[in-house]
Each structure stands twice: as C-alpha cells, then as structure tokens.
Fold:
Amino acid sequence: MDGLFIAFSNSLTALAICMAVGYACRKFGLINDTHTVGMTNLLVRVATPATMFMALYRSEFSRALLLECLATIAITSVIYILGGYLGLFIAKIMKASPGERQNWQFGVAFGNVGFMGIPIITAVFGYEGLIYVAMALTAFNILTFTIGMRMYDNAPRDFTVKGLLTRNPAIPAVIVGSIFFVSGLRIPYAIEGGVTLIGGITSPMSMILLGVILARQNLKSAFTDVRMLPAIGAKLIIMPLAVLPVLAWLVPNPIMFYVIVTLMAMPPAALTAIFAEQFDGDSFTAAKFVVVGTILCAITVPLISLFL
Structure:
C-alpha cells in the first residue's frame, strides 16, 4: 500500500480523535457557545499566526525557497479564483437558489486551509510543508475578504488594506516571519520556545473546534440534502485531481507539490457558513455544505494521496 496513503490515513485518524473529543464535549455540555467564541478567537488570532510565523522562522533562506513561496501564493490564488467559477458553473447546472449559489461558489473556491490544512500538513510533512501552507493561507486570507466576500450578494463592496490586516492576524504574522526568513535574524531561544508551544495548539484545537461545530448540526438532515453533492464532489475530488497533472508538470519540488494538491482537497471553509450568516445568506445550507464536506474528506483525502 502507498506510504503516503498510510501517512494520511494515520494522521486523519489521529485528528478525527480530536474532533470526536470536541463533538463529545459539546454534546455533554463541557463546551458551550461562549467557549466556542473564545476558542475560535484564540485559534485565529493567536495560535495560527504563531504557527505561520514559526513556519517561516524555522526555514533556512534560499533564493529557490523564496521563489517557491511566491509561486505558491500565485498558484493557489489562481486555483481559488478558478474554483469560484467551477462552483458558479455547478450552481447554474443545478439551477440553484441564490443562497445555494453563493455558498457553493464560495465553498468550492475556498477550502479549509487553516482549520484542517494546517493539522493535516503538520502531521504528514511537518514544518517543511508548513511554509507552503503559510503562503497558501496568505492568498486565502487576501482573496476571501476581497473577491470572496463579493460572492455574497449583501456583502460590502469596499475594502481597505488596514481592514484586511486587522481582520486577518495571519497576514501580519507571515509578513514578520518573512522578514526573519529573509534576513536570518534570530529571537532568544526562550521566546522561540514559547511561540512554538503556542503554535503547537493549532492542530488539536482546530480539530476539537470542528468537532464542536459538527455537534451543533443536524447530521441526518445534512446527509439527506443530495442537491449539494455535486458541489461537494467538485471541491473534494474534481479540484485536486484537475490541478494535479498541471502542478506535476509545473512544480519540481515534491513537498510543495504534495502540499498544494492536498490543500485543494480540503473541504469547504468554515468561513462559508460565517459569511452566509453575516451577509444574510442561506446559513443553514452553508452549514450543511461545510459539515458534509468535512466528514467526507476523511475518505477522499487519503484516496487523493494515492494519485500523488
């Protein structure tokens, strides 16, 4: 059996245990909505930026790696944009309602690079792969809060650089990390250890939080909504398989290649449901879309790895 398939399967099993813990904690009342808000803020504003910083900080600078980082931003940006057109195409074929169309377009374009991408890549490839996740997440954060928001009919159309940076702490973390990466500057070992520990909670907390989110949904209702299956199939299967041969020809570094294809196989981003709620979209449909995609990716991601 393929070694990468085994690595992904083992990693997803370990992460699924963390998700099950979050699910159980929510069901038994150990975690409530107030805790969830605090956990989300800690994860998004503290732990993930620490992980992104350390991914760049621990990487040894080379001109080739710098070019690969810039290439990762460019490549993932193009894929995100094309994914939006794919989601829109499926919505037209399915004669989707406005709510479905907005969710499918955004969800097919933008996968869960943060909450699921980081723990999976960390488990399989370690910090060597995380630097490419940091670049993909940078493109993700820029595009979701610009053209991604425009996919929702009631979202604001005006954006500022200041607003983009304040809403996305991971972007300043990548900027600061890039300065250390290029310059070779070092921070005291004690501080480095502290930042590493903080970033270390990203993977388990991400999966625990996903479990909490799953526990808030009606899973039976989600899995009986067959209309969204084409959009889920496009996100989990068509997108990674479509980019795979192109990237195999375009990207010589195998780790960079593996990471980008894996990230494109991630389920719809949790931001799909958040934006639907925030901009008066169909938040119930969005939640089902995210939940079913998240559960099914435990099967599809190891299968996609066989093609790698």
Summary: The chain has 15 helices and no strands. The mean pLDDT is 89. Residues 3-307 form a domain with the Na+/H+ antiporter like fold fold (CATH 1.20.1530). Residues 63-93 form the longest helix (31 residues).
